[in-house]
Amino acid sequence: MATASICGIMMTSCGSKNDDATRVAGDFDYHADRFADIEVLRYQVPEFETLSLDQKKLVYYLTEAALAGRDILWDQNGKYNLATRRLLENVYTNYDGDRDDSEFKAFETYLKQVWFANGLHHHYSMDKFTPGFSREFLEARVNALPQEQLDGTDLDVIYEYIFNPDFLAKRVNQAEGQDLILTSAVNMYEGVTQKEVEDYYNAMKDPADETPISYGLNSRVVKGADGKLTEEVYKVGGLYSSAIERIVDNLQKALPYAENETQRKSIEELIAYYQSGDLKTFDEYSITWAQDTLSRVDFINGFIESYGDPLGMTGSWESIVNFKNTEASARTEALSADAQWFEDNSPINPIFRKPHVKGVSAKVINAAILAGDAYPATPIGINLPNANWIRAQHGSKSVTIENITAAYDAASHGNGFNEEFVIDEPTRKLLDDYLFITDNLHTDLHECLGHGSGRLLPGVDPDALKAHGSTLEETRADLFALYYLADPRLIELGLLDNPEAYKAEYYKYMLNGLMTQLFRIEPGKDIEEAHMRNRALIARWALENGKADNVVELVDIDGKTYVKINDYEKLRDLFGQLLAEIQRIKSEGDYEAGRDLVETYAVKVDPELHKQVLDRYSKLDIAPYKGFVNPSYTLVTDKDGNITDVTISYGEGYVDQMLRYSKDYSTL
Ligand code: ZN
Q1: Within 10 A of 135 (CB to CB), how many other CB atoms are there?
Q2: Do 511 and 14 touch, CB atoms closer than 8 A?
Q3: How far is the CA of 158 from the centre of ligand 1 (A)?
Q4: Which of 280, 307, 387, 583 ranks highest by number of CB atoms within 10 Å?
Q5: Which residues pair with 153 in a beta bridge?
């Protein structure tokens, strides 16, 4: 990874949550659609009505700036994605045959999958989707389309893209020992090898530069006819100009409603960055953005996370508009105010601790719109900026997206997960009582304190852990959170009311890491995604290293495997030991030790246990992946055209939303 890898912690599919009636407002319909391995939910936006008119206008224009960038991500994810989406949508909307026809149904499912993934590759596994309909079916429908809808469309390459499983098979390949660029389908490189790109950036990097830009964050690297590498920069007048111009236009409309000077400056700097493509300006913007802690409305909009790049450099475009949830923010403010205590008491070698933890700002937010790489699948926490030196010198902002976690919680109630996978009734009761709060606190600790803790020794390259950097960074943040979840300090701070509460999250974490997350993996495949690797690493390491004391075991009851935790205090101790080792690896840049941990614990899957988990899960009909449709915002104007209000509505379906976005926000 290029950075201290910020995560979007993706919500795990294990739906084991409590039924907290206060979180389920009335008859809100959380379920929007269900297909393949996906469930699409709706989320509510509590407290929107409490915003002032200016804040609502700010939210409105920022949501427009968010939706304007949608096509950028589609194109970054694969160079034929947009053309393919348009063709599929034209076939779908022009279809006048039997909608119960099995080929049409398979086609519809495929299109829903493609929409969800912002392209033809699964958003999590990165594998290309397998169409359940025939090429003949599609060709017949395409041939029946009005000619003007096909002008300029290269049908041959689109058919190849859809139907040839070997053509651009994987969006992001992370397999050790292969050329990660040549074997990845992402559209961030063209005609270049991994070695050429690494040489290109290494020649640019100055090891003595203490404030390096995020090299490659906003560009596509191509090889010219002369054999030289150049960057096509994402900016006004550069690559993706038409989409970025529309983003900028809406940012300019938002500007008059900025809540204060710092926020105004940050929006101006973001506009300037989009206009110039200059990554120094992006750093200035990021610093100002990190300093804007007083505004109620906030947003990210840009090329942010680099998980979509096999080399972890180029940012995938995303936007989330949000505002502070005043009630729930009291929780993270308490942690944030205590950041130095947590750092000073962390169970790591003191030389790796930060003597002064700076600017850990934390709040709980409600998302108002999710876009780009945060839509429909979305993180439940955000911690930015990503640049290590900015985080160290200027601090960072960390948020938990409470209305999203609340929607997951409400939608998962009663899905049968706990009855199938949790070992006994007392443990189920523990999860019912404490999992929602401890899961939220785990996210808070991971985001507010975990990613920001610790330091590199002088001279250590932040990219030293290479392809394993993001897995190990997530491991570190999760361990920090797990370790402190059991700390009496949380009771003293009034964040938990029972010293046993942490056991709920420990049980769920071990169950997920050892067993249930395997539900997301196809038979025969390895674990690849960074967060899943991190969870497997922690859980399997703790199982293995606690064997002598029988801390955790996998037991067989009537032919089914269950996780049994015999000693929660010793488990905490193991989490602390592993945290110390991971921090050492990170601080010293010990690539070999990091790689060995990942390869020993985080990658391979026990095929028998995997099969059992899949069998047991399949009886529950729980979708392994979830995402969201957005609410819609409408300007209300008086007879003179003055904006008098912004209203929010929730009723839109998944297909309708996707088709509307393709119609109204087609920019490339
Ligand atoms: Zn994270």
Answers
A1: 12
A2: yes
A3: 36
A4: 387
A5: none
Q: What H or E segment, with its residue span, contains residue 646?
A: strand 643-649
Handedness of CA 322, 386, 78, 225 (dihedral sign): positive
For 538-591, write each residue's pLDDT tens digit.
999 999 999 999 999 999 999 999 999 999 999 999 999 999 999 999 999 999
Report helix, strand or coil for 470: helix
State residue 358's pLDDT score.
61
* Å from CA of 569 to ligand 1 middle: 24
d(CA 7, ligand 1 centre) in Å: 3
15 CA distance to ligand 1 centroid (A)? Answer: 20
Q: How far is the CA of 448 from the centre of ligand 1 (A)?
A: 10
> Rounded mean pLDDT of 469-481?
96
Residues counted in the chain: 668
Residue 509 C-alpha to ligand 1 middle, in angstroms? 15
In angstroms, the CA 465 to CA 481 distance is 22
Residue 276: how many CB atoms within 10 A of its CB? 16
Rounded Cα distance between 258 and 260, Å, is 6
Token digits for 404?
Answer: 């999203």
Calpha distance 296→301 (Å, rounded): 17
CA of residue 6 to ligand 1 center, whole Å: 5
Residue 474 Cα to ligand 1 middle (Å)? 5
Cα angle for residues 433, 438, 444 (degrees, 5° grid): 155
Centroid of ligand 1 to alpha carbon of 443 (angstroms): 8
CB count within 10 Å of CB 300 equals 24
The amino acid that residue 308 corresponds to is: G
Token digits for 535? 């969870």
CA–CA gap between residue 572 and residue 471 (Å, rounded): 21
pLDDT in the model for residue 181: 97
Alpha-carbon dihedral angle through residues 276, 278, 281, 282, given to the nearest 10 degrees: 110
Query: How many whole angstroms from 106 Cα to the centroid of ligand 1?
Result: 36
The residues pairing with 31 across neighbouring beta strands, listed in sequence order, are 41
Distance 189 CA to ligand 1 centre (A): 26
Bridge partners (DSSP) listed for residue 499: none
Please check the confidence at residue 653 and state whether its pLDDT lies above 90. yes
pLDDT tens-digit readout, 30-88: 999 999 999 999 999 999 999 999 999 999 999 999 999 999 999 999 999 999 999 99
What's the 8 CA to ligand 1 centre distance in angstroms? 6
Distance 530 CA to ligand 1 centre (A): 10
Q: What's the 281 CA to ligand 1 centre distance in angstroms? A: 25
